[in-house]
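Please produce the structure of this protein holding magnesium ion.
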Amino acid sequence: METFRTYSKLVIEECIQIGIGSIFLVGLVATFMGAVTTLQTAFNLVSPFIPDYIIATVVRDMTVLELAPTIIGVIYAGKVGSSMAGGLGTMRITEQIDALEVMGINSASYLVLPKVIASLLMYPMLVIIAGFLSILGGYLAGVFSEILTPFDYKYGIQYLFNPYMVKFGILKSYVFAFLIASISSFRGYYTTGGALEVGKASTRAVTDSVIAVLIADYLLAEMFLTK
Amino acid sequence: MIEVENIGKTFDDKEILLGISGTFHAGMPNLIIGSSGTGKSVLLKCIVGLLEPNEGLVKYDGRDFTHADRDLKTEIRREIGMLFQGSALFDSKNVEQNVMFPLDVLTKMPKDEKLDRVNFCLQRVGLENTNHLMPSEISGGMQKRVGIARAIVNSSKYLFCDEPNSGLDPQTAILIDDLILEITQEYNMTTVVVTHDMNSVMGIGENIIFLSKGRKLWEGTNNEITHSGVKELDDFVFANKVMSRLKNAL
Ligand SMILES: Nc1ncnc2c1ncn2[C@@H]1O[C@H](COP(=O)(O)OP(=O)(O)O)[C@@H](O)[C@H]1O
Ligand SMILES: [Mg+2]
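Below is the modeled complex.
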């Protein structure tokens, strides 16, 4: 019971850090992603036979399936993954991890578990927020540059809507959250050396997590989207 | 009292420690000395259980720590306090939270009792009213003091210090040495201090073990250290300018 309370506290602290650390960048990237997707899709759709609202449909599908879970995953690895690795690496080289161990605390579970759990709680939420902001960004860009009317945009984002895609996008976000948090923690926790190595561990954490996310992205698409 | 028997430690076939034995007594600082890279920190980590020795064993007041079961290990761990070379304060916690941490995880003390104990220890190391400062806001010497307070807060019986005065100016270094000496005598702790500082050796070295290249070459007191007849130890002792002048003057 005591352990449960300690861990809940640690998880909440991590959640707050993850949230504060990434929400601004994630929101910014998501909004622009949607806006740019709208402009580029409009630029590519030159046929008079394709109705304008299809632009909104394209923005929606790209956002839900790929842009929100995956691109935000890359941002998340860069922001949150690198800071997890940097934090743990610093704790390692300054003997803070040894200090925990001397007190008889299992440092791996004490430090890493809350990060992974917090990531599983926070990342899907960030992805959902990013999805909404991306679609909002698309709306703003589309309406301001008079590519399509507000009515068309609203019609387009509901057109042929398949809820399975949302489920798939959220499933992806759980997988990515786990991969990024555990790979980054691993890189940080097993740092040896000095400040230089902490920097390297941070970079490795980002590189490795991004690669893992992209591979997982492909495999999940292969498993769940191909008939 | 801590007894170390025939400790050996290798890292990937590289022998770091070989057949180290020794006894550390209660109520006095016991020193492990030697130049950098000779395995002092590795020995200390073997003693506190951060590293598993390949050979030998460590006894805490007769209790075999190396081969202890989980319960006994936990019991002994609760009696150990350690001051790390860089203080190793948790940098996300303030002074009070750092010192309270062992009580949080090792005891079921009520909150106000914990706070009393923390304040008592902070006062003991001369740091009252610093509770809410962060480790990054205080000097190296103060960090060491907080580290000492954290190491003794759970009424530890055994205190380990890895180079407690590295990175400190000579005056602060002596203050920290004195603090360790006082606390050790006051609470009759078994204290083991790793150092390569001749000031500490002469100041608090009642029981000294000298390591060179992973072996124990000598043991004795600070009164005997200048005429040990061990070449490696003479090289170590008289590498210090003050000591070598002293020797020439005699
Ligand atoms: N975890 C480790 N893995 C491999 N080698 C190590 C490890 N820790 C220490 N060593 C090596 O053991 C030797 C002694 O190190 P150490 O005990 O830190 O020296 P010091 O006497 O300065 O404290 C050094 O050569 C160091 O490279
Ligand atoms: Mg050392």
